């Protein structure tokens, strides 16, 4: 089978599904497969064979001949139509073909057939542009930052929209652990965007896309003021260039990255607004898992575990543990923490094995330690107090060794709550004295330390209650995301 025929089948699936008015979620449910797999087929990330395509379109009531008609159209039209980045318009001959095809496709929505004709071709061109961009990135990846910039400034083949997109994606990947590298890559994407030839509006669209990634990298570098300035530049460029973008760039990226910035700025209501905007702009679900994860983090920062749980459950089908083990671990870990907070440990229990398997696959000591912590939370919720106490003790030792004061405080309060519910106030007093000694030598935010001191003082006087421990735990959980949040000494 020719190299280009596999992407062609992916394009045809998108065309036929859209023409019938089916979403990926609807077709996935009908065919008994995940929307994520359908997205992988349509994006060319997984091989779509002819037999599989025939099987899928049968659920929409389409015959195999529809595939042949679409493939013939694609082959005939490819020579006369180019991707939006390379051409300002299309010939009258291409327009006549659109009318012919709209009629040939019968019960496909006619207006959809007309408007999507160019996408059949440009979609295939886009896949090949991204393949070329991957090759170009491999050449850039081996070079220094200075050499990368020089190649873009001097070599026209490095000035493509797809390479800008690929470099921006690499910036996203680097941001959590290597923020300075992420910033260098985002700036490189911006340099490429400024030099892409062709339509002026398309170049503005790319610059807005790149500036949003610059903002994200600056956020990762904890430079929120500069990140805000970059996002202020990104928005008008992105919106002005919108007419030139036929869908090559996923429109969910810019509001999604802005949501991350607003969350870091503790502007949570704005962050949620941008997240909902991103969800509305990603109907095919390419970024759905990541967007839902971000939304749950914002809900968690607002102290809303009920909403966070619902959001995480929606995200589960869209985060592939095989390809995204880190996100899959974070999602499932946070989901079980939320369930424990809501007193639903019985629901969390059966999911623990999956979390542990992912932690073992990632292989990090702290991931495995946090899994033991989660197992202790579930055990406590199920009344298995000895098991929970052993787990919390093991986790406290590791966190203390790594000088993770905040995590140490949280698991110490989990242990204190367990002891208080058993009426063991004397042991809580000893635990609180130990906590205070350690906190004096560790860096903990002022408001978090104030809340811990309220609890420890009550424990010292043996007046601490399980309710107070829960309030401090809930506060510290939120204070991880909002260090300036103030602790209320008296419950509302």
Provide an overview of this structure.
With 492 residues, the chain is mainly alpha-helical. It folds into four domains: 5-125, 434 Repressor (Amino-terminal Domain), CATH 1.10.260; 143-249, no CATH class; 259-318, no CATH class; 403-492, no CATH class. Helix content is 72%, strand content 0%. It contains 25 helices and no strands. Helix 9 packs parallel to helix 11. The longest helix has 32 residues, at 110-141.
Look at the helices and sheets and give the structural class: mainly alpha
CATH architecture heading of the largest domain: Orthogonal Bundle
Shape: globular
In CATH, what is the homologous superfamily of the largest domain? lambda repressor-like DNA-binding domains
What's the main sheet like?
none
Q: How many independent structural domains?
A: 4
Q: Uncertain runs with pLDDT below 50, 5 residues or more?
A: 1-6, 79-95, 97-115
Write the H/E string, N to C.
Answer: HHHHHHHHHHHHHHHHHHHHHHHHH
Provide tags for this entry.
492 residues; mainly alpha; 434 Repressor (Amino-terminal Domain); 4 domains; 0% strand; globular
């Amino acid at each position: 089978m020719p190299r280009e025929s596999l992407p062609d089948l992916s394009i045809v699936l998108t065309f036929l599904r859209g023409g019938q008015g089916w979403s990926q979620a609807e077709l996935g449910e009908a065919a008994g497969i995940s929307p994520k797999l359908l997205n992988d087929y349509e994006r060319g990330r997984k091989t779509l064979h002819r037999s599989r395509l025939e099987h899928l379109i049968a659920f929409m009531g389409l015959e195999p001949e529809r595939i042949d008609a679409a493939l013939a159209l694609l082959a005939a039209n490819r020579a006369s139509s180019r991707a939006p980045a390379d051409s300002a318009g299309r010939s009258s001959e291409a327009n006549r073909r659109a009318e012919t095809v709209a009629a040939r496709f019968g019960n496909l929505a006619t207006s959809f057939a007309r408007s999507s004709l160019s996408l059949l071709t440009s979609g295939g061109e886009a896949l090949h542009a991204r393949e070329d961009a991957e090759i170009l990135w491999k050449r850039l990846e081996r070079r220094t930052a200075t050499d990368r910039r020089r190649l873009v400034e001097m070599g026209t083949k490095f000035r493509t929209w797809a390479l800008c997109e690929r470099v921006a994606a690499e910036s996203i990947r680097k941001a959590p652990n290597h923020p300075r590298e992420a910033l260098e890559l985002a700036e490189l994407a911006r340099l490429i965007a400024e030099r892409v030839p062709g339509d002026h509006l398309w170049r503005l669209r790319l610059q807005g896309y790149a500036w949003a990634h610059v903002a994200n990298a600056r956020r990762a570098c904890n430079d929120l003021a500069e990140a805000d300035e970059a996002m202020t530049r990104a928005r008008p460029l992105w919106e002005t260039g919108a007419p030139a973008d036929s869908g090559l760039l996923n429109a969910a990226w810019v509001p999604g990255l802005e949501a991350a910035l607003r969350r870091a700025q503790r502007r949570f209501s704005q962050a949620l607004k941008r997240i909902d905007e991103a969800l509305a702009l990603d109907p095919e679900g390419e970024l759905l898992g990541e967007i839902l994860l971000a939304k749950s983090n914002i809900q968690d920062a607002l102290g809303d575990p009920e909403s966070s749980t619902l959001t995480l459950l929606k995200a589960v089908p869209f985060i592939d543990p095989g390809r995204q083990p880190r996100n899959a671990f974070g999602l499932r870990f946070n989901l079980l923490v939320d369930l424990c907070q809501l007193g639903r440990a019985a629901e969390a229990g059966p999911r623990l094995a999956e979390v542990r398997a992912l932690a073992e696959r990632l292989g990090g000591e702290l991931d495995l330690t946090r899994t033991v912590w989660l197992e202790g939370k579930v055990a406590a919720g199920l009344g298995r107090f000895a098991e929970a106490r052993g787990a919390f003790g093991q986790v406290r030792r590791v966190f203390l060794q790594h000088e993770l004061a905040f995590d140490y405080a949280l698991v110490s309060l989990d242990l204190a709550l367990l002891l208080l519910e058993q009426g063991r106030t004397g042991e809580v007093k000893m635990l609180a004295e130990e906590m205070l000694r350690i906190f004096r030598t560790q860096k903990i935010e002022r408001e978090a330390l104030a809340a811990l001191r309220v609890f420890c003082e009550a424990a010292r006087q043996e007046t601490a209650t399980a309710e107070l421990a829960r309030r401090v735990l809930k506060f510290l959980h939120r204070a991880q995301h909002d260090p300036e949040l103030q602790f209320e000494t008296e419950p509302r």
